Amino acid sequence: MVLAFDGGRSHRLLVIPALFDEAGKMRRQTVEVMHRLNLSGIDSFLPDLPGCNESRQPLDKQSLAGWRNSAQAAADEFGATCVLTLRAGALLAPAQLPGWKYAPLTGPKALRALMMAQSISAKEAGRASEEDQGLDSLAAAGRIDGVRLAGWHIGAELFSGLEQAVALPDSQQAIIDQDDIGGSGLWMRAEPGENPEQADALAAIIAIGLIGR
How far, in Å, CA of 110 to CA of 33, rounded? Predict the structure, then answer.
């Protein structure tokens, strides 16, 4: 499945979403940015990663390499001329495409946030001992058998890949920091949300970069 604004125009932006819990928190904001880009004459495409959103594939069977291959396949399918990644989505960007990385996140930091959420949730619910739900114990389980973190069943192959994952250093994508957008990141909120001013700012950076307005 893909959410697309496709007018057959010359600028065709592949959008790679944030991962895991942050994907849900930022979904509405991502669509708002795409809508603004559409009004500026820029096509955009937001595909579902295998195992995520509407995909019928199991998440625990996915790998970082598989997700990267899927991102490249989407770029080829839609004739992408540039790419925008959000947060840990930067780990999947086709290196040859020019574009932007919005507030990029490394794999280890993405995993740590999930493990901390899982540890806190389990302890508060009294479901496991402190030892069983410590970050080291969760990481060890993740590497061997995979692990369920904050509702996400991450297989061993994906877990191990994310543990070492950083954005490709030879990519052509510029970094957009949150300070460039203003305010605090929406991924920090407890619930999904949107911010029109931030959506305007992010879309403007991309539109100016592509067509000068």
Answer: 23
